[in-house]
Specification:
The structure holds two protein chains of two kinds. The longest helix of chain A is centred in the middle third of the chain and has 16 residues, at about 195-210. Chain A is globular and about 65 Å long. Chain A has two domains: about 5-95 and about 180-265, P-loop containing nucleotide triphosphate hydrolases (Rossmann fold), CATH 3.40.50.300; about 280-539, 3-Layer(aba) Sandwich (Rossmann fold). Chain A is of the alpha/beta class. By secondary structure, chain B is an all-alpha fold. Chain B folds into two domains: about 55-340, ABC transporter involved in vitamin B12 uptake, BtuC (Orthogonal Bundle); about 345-380, no CATH class. Chain B has helices at about 15-45, 55-80, 85-105, 110-130, 135-155, 180-185, 195-210, 215-225, 225-230, 235-260, 275-285, 295-315, 320-340, 370-375, and strands at about 190, 190-195. A two-stranded antiparallel sheet of chain B has the order 1-2. The longest helix of chain B has about 30 residues, at about 15-45. Classes of the chains: A alpha/beta, B mainly alpha. At the A-B interface, strand 1, strand 4, helix 13 and strand 18 of A face helix 8, helix 9 and helix 14 of B.
Chain lengths: ~550, ~375
């Protein structure tokens, strides 16, 4: 890792005279949900500009607007001082803005090979010859990969993207974005799928690009990344910019100020007591995610407190949760619920025993498009709202109104279509669904994704209340979320438990080290320390 | 339908923008019904004999066969995709009924039971191919469609089975369509044929089933988001299986009515009802702005297509232009459900120098070309 003086920040500061991108008073609403309320920012040439915001602050929407995927309701975008309008992503690309989205799968075609994905832009190019040639495609792919200094071997080039790892996909998407020679590169939470080592490599690369004159907008909600990389940080909260900050020479960013802007309260206010565990409810023994896994894991969940399963993308936490719920099968493992064997062959069987899952992807796995809140809510327990087999919509509406009041769902009423709700309110409905039953075990997979800060606190409170009667397991990839909601934190790395700590023992550093223990033998760089100290007091 | 109709409650749009939007809403919701009623009145006023009771009933009677098949297809469209084998099953049912009564001299009721069982069997084959063997529904049902059409011809040696016909070995068949069987489409109660009652009852039952029962809602859940339905505890495969099985039974029912009408085992019978059923189901998407398959829509679609064809035929339209009319009606209905969008449309910003002033920058007013492009690309 490079010492701070050599990170190029001083050089870049001198060049920051021309404004590459300016955003003025951008607003955007989805239905009644005002996501952006007049955002303005200005990025100078060669800058690495960090954009921070908690989940749901409006970062993703702003990125979508800058990359041409969405149109703003109001405001304007200026490139090199001229007003531009992006009717589609291609227009943004032509204007020199390259975007790498958070989920690398959004940028690749899974069934095509690595080479074809790298050369995808040429494939659609009108000047390309009609006949497809693998040799030409691979040559182009090598060329594209070279813009990032990457060398893929022939076998990798010829394997489908489906078969390569998430970090390779991320690099592939990045290489393609760079091959278009953008003036401004937008990186949207690029490290969420990467290990500490891979992140460090990415940071070196970003610094090198900035040194060559490229401007970078780096979106993240991790303090350590801003600390290592950025010349300036803008904080977005509730759809508006809360301030811009620059590091104090020699001391780095003033995190207390940044965090206050980020969270609308001083960090210390969010401290809470750790709850003690109650009796064990669910026991997992000899769990192997894949049959050939050398290690197996055991885990016992207790009533009375919240257990967090912390791990990066690919750590196996989603598979584990879905297996407990009977939604997928894994290599091996035994489940015991309340002392009796528990072997659900399908989710319905798990639901009958009081084991419920709030799945990872709200839109793909939980919501029925176009349905009103009440039908979304009652879906798993529809039979309790019937006379004979006819639905009793009156009873359904009353139950929905009660749930909306209890969880603080902001919506026009029980018959409002789910799409008119904000992400946080949608998530409350998806969780509220299970409150109609009698939860013994509640599994929540990334419940705070795409959820605004207030809804996040509401959901956290609901989850902690539920722990009084049920064993609660929250899976997340975010250390700060883990520290915010958990009483016990279990770290998972590729199907193996690398740490199992009570909240009082679980510092940020320890957790981060455990999350990537097998990839980086030594603990993560000491650079992260100042930010960690700031963040820990917040958690 | 009732799951969808409250979209517009929370809207607060300024008047100039709201007016065309509200009009668009109205057209999308009631367009098909309005056009249908208007056409009915226009035909009644200009064509002698169109507005009579008998003619109105006969429209329903003509449409009953394809419409019952379309109701089954509606169910499959909800959970997955159109069941393309319904026409072939209708035809097979005609052939089986003729075989049963003319060749094997069975009674009417036993012929009906056999037809329904055959329909159920085909439905189960479709369901197995789709649900357990993972073949995409359109392709699986296309495969069974061809197979059944071939099977049907092979069953009767490519001939039309009629009373008193001579078989290949020289024997003359002695059986005939029984009176109770031909009564299905031939006899009337209070001036309405039994087949029309059957059609109305099936449509009503399916409507209640889909709109009001728990199971109906689960069918829509499976179609809306299969993974979400599964993770909410639904036995998704059972529902999908049931949809294709019921579709087979309904197509066989359609075939029973058709056999009762034709009174012979016509080898080409039922072939045309596939495309008619597809049109009815898809026109149904546009009824009340549902944008999804629904029983009321399919019923309205059947009546709508029926009255247009009947009206035009009575005004001297040659029969061979009927497919042309059906096709145009279908495209019109598809435009209503997919191209005209209701309410809450996303407005692109008018970020031109003209509207650079923040006070007018809401983008709700300036119809420049840029928003137009954005509108059309954000499908």
């Amino acid at each position: 890792m490079q010492p701070r003086q050599d990170d190029g920040r001083e050089d870049r500061r001198d060049r920051r005279r021309d404004t590459v991108l300016e955003v003025r008073d951008i607003s955007k609403s989805y239905g009644p949900n005002r996501v952006l309320r007049g955002v303005g920012l200005r990025i100078g040439a060669g800058d690495i500009y960090g954009l921070m915001g908690a989940n749901g602050a409006g970062k993703s929407t702003l990125i979508k607007i800058l990359s041409g995927a969405e149109s703003p309701d109001g405001g304007e975008i200026l490139r090199d001082g001229e007003v531009v309008v992006f009717p589609d992503p291609l227009a943004a690309q032509r204007s020199g803005i390259g975007t790498v989205h958070q989920n690398p799968n959004d940028g690749v075609i899974l069934d095509m090979t690595v080479a074809e994905n790298l050369a995808l832009d040429r494939l659609g190019d009108r000047s390309s010859p009609i006949l497809f040639s693998r040799r030409r495609t691979e040559a182009q792919a090598v060329e594209v990969a070279a813009t990032l200094g990457l060398r893929f071997d022939r076998q990798t080039l010829r394997s489908p993207v489906r078969d390569v790892g998430v970090s390779e996909r991320q690099l592939l998407v990045l290489a393609r974005a760079l091959s278009r020679k953008p003036r401004l590169l937008i990186l949207d939470e690029p490290t969420s799928a990467l290990s500490a080592e891979e992140s460090a490599r990415l940071f070196d690369l970003v610094r090198a690009l900035a040194a060559d004159g490229m401007t970078v907008l780096f979106v993240t909600h991790k303090l350590a990344e801003i600390d290592q990389l950025c010349d300036r940080v803008g904080v977005l909260r509730d759809g508006a910019m809360q301030g811009e900050f620059e590091p104090v020479p020699g001391r780095g960013f003033d995190w207390t100020t940044v965090l206050t802007a980020l969270f609308d309260r001083t960090p210390a206010e969010s401290e809470r007591a750790e709850l003690p565990p109650g009796e064990p409810v669910l026991a997992l023994e000899g769990v192997r995610l894949r049959e050939d896994d050398p290690h197996s894991l055991d885990l016992e969940l207790h009533r009375g407190h919240v257990t967090v399963l912390l791990g990066l993308l690919g750590s196996g936490k989603t598979e584990l949760l879905e297996w407990i719920f009977g939604a997928t099968s894994i290599g091996a493992g035994r489940r015991t619920l309340d002392g009796r064997p528990f072997d659900p062959g399908y989710p319905g069987a798990a639901i009958k025993r009081g084991v419920y899952l709030v799945p990872e992807s709200r839109h793909e796995q939980a919501i029925i498009p176009g349905w009103p809140i009440r039908s979304q809510l009652t879906l798993p327990f529809a039979s309790t709202f019937t006379r004979g087999t006819l639905m009793r919509t009156g009873a359904e509406r009353r139950a929905t109104a009660t749930m909306m009041r209890d969880l603080g769902v902001v919506a026009a009423g029980p018959d409002a279509p789910i799409e008119t709700l904000s992400g946080g309110n949608q998530q409350k409905v998806v969780i509220g669904r299970w409150l109609l039953g009698e939860p013994r075990v509640l599994l929540l997979d990334e419940p705070f994704r795409g959820v605004d800060i207030n809804a996040r606190h509401d959901i956290g409170a609901t989850v902690r209340e539920l722990a009084a009667t049920a064993a609660v397991l929250v899976a997340t990839s975010d250390v700060d979320e883990a520290l915010e909601v958990g009483d016990r934190i279990v770290v998972l790395d590729r199907g193996r438990i690398t740490a199992d700590l009570a909240l009082g023992d679980a510092g940020r550093d320890r957790l981060i080290a455990a999350m990537s223990v097998r990839r980086t033998p030594s603990p993560p760089p000491s650079e992260a320390a100042p930010s960690a100290a700031g963040k820990e007091s917040h958690a | 339908m009732n799951l969808r109709d409250s979209t517009s409650t929370a809207r607060r749009t300024p008047l100039p923008a709201a007016f065309p939007a509200a009009l668009g809403d109205f057209v999308v919701r009631y367009g098909i019904i309005l056009v249908g009623v208007t056409l009915y009145i226009a035909f009644s006023a200009t064509t002698t004999g169109f507005g009579t009771w008998d003619n109105t009933v006969s429209i329903l009677q003509i449409q009953a066969v394809a419409a019952i098949a379309a109701l089954g297809m509606t169910l499959t469209a909800i959970v997955g995709d159109l069941d393309l084998s319904v026409g072939a099953v209708t035809g097979l049912s005609v052939t089986v009924a003729a075989e049963a009564m003319i060749h094997y001299e069975l009674t009417g009721p036993s012929a009906i039971v056999i037809c329904l069982l055959v329909g159920l069997l085909v439905g189960c084959v479709n369901a197995t191919l789709i649900v357990f063997l993972n073949i995409p529904p359109l392709l699986a049902t296309l495969g069974t469609m061809f197979t059944i059409q071939g099977l049907k011809r092979w069953l009767v040696d490519g001939q039309t089975l009629t009373t008193g016909m001579k078989l290949g070995d020289g024997t003359v068949v002695k059986g005939r369509f029984t009176d109770d069987f031909t009564a299905i489409d031939g006899d009337k109660l209070f001036g309405i044929p039994y087949s029309v009652y059957l059609f109305l009852v099936i449509a009503l039952l399916l409507w209640v089933f889909l709109q009001r029962t728990r199971h109906g809602r689960v069918f829509y859940a499976v179609g809306g988001n299969e993974e979400a339905a599964r993770l909410a505890g639904t036995r998704v495969k059972r529902y999908k299986f049931a949809a294709y099985a019921i579709s087979g039974v309904l197509a066989a029912t359609a075939g029973i009515i058709l056999a009762s009408r034709l009174r012979q085992g016509d080898v080409t019978a039922g072939d045309s009802s596939l495309l008619d059923a597809v049109a009815m189901t898809l026109v149904g998407y546009a009824v009340l702005g549902a944008k999804k398959p629904n029983a009321l829509g399919t019923f309205v679609g059947a009546v709508f297509i029926g009255l247009i064809l009947q009206g035009l035929t009575m005004r001297g339209l040659p029969y061979y232009t009927q497919d042309l009319i059906k096709g145009l009606v279908l495209i019109f209905a598809l435009l209503m459900s997919f191209s005209l969008r209701r309410g809450r449309r996303r407005r692109a910003v008018a970020a031109t120098p003209a509207s650079a002033d923040p006070s007018t920058g809401t983008g709700a007013d300036v119809p420049t070309t840029a928003p137009a492009i954005a509108e059309s690309t954000h499908g």
